[in-house]
Amino acid sequence: MGLIAEVYHGLSDKMNAAFAASGLSEIDFETIIRLYRSPGRRLRMSDLAAQTSLSTSGVTRVVDRLEREGLVERVACPSDRRASFATLTDAGATRLESVLPRHIEDIEKWFTGLLSPQRLEELLDSLRIIRDVVRPCATAGAMEAGSAEAAHPELSSRRS
Description:
By secondary structure, the chain is mostly helical. It has a single domain (2-155), classed as Winged helix-like DNA-binding domain superfamily/Winged helix DNA-binding domain (Arc Repressor Mutant, subunit A). Helix content is 61%, strand content 8%. The chain has helices at residues 2-21, 26-37, 45-51, 56-68, 90-110, 117-134, 145-151, and strands at residues 42-44, 72-76, 84-88. The chain has a three-stranded antiparallel beta sheet with strand order 1-3-2.
């Protein structure tokens, strides 16, 4: 566990500079990229909370802040008055797209580029097995992996 924590924090430190240069925090980026990858660039608030490291109240605060910045908007669910969707705006997509090239370079430099394709695939497969057990709702509301990669090849599992 210590090794996983050291790698995660080291990668976060390396990548946060690109986020900060775009006026985003790490959790802002995580929220926006989850929406960007989702069908219609939107997720139910509960699914967004499940996919991020946030509680439902935490995701509400992040979406409120991103909404004030014009990056996300909240849309009522037509079939359930109690639910709402967080939807990425064009401004939010533009902000994400401004940081993606550097983010992808950083991932390649500090993570995927350090491993052979076979070792990387084995690592990603192993991480998915663990994730699916410890956070089974982490992909709630998301597209099938192949569809997401087809829609946004720059976000393929090789790079994110």
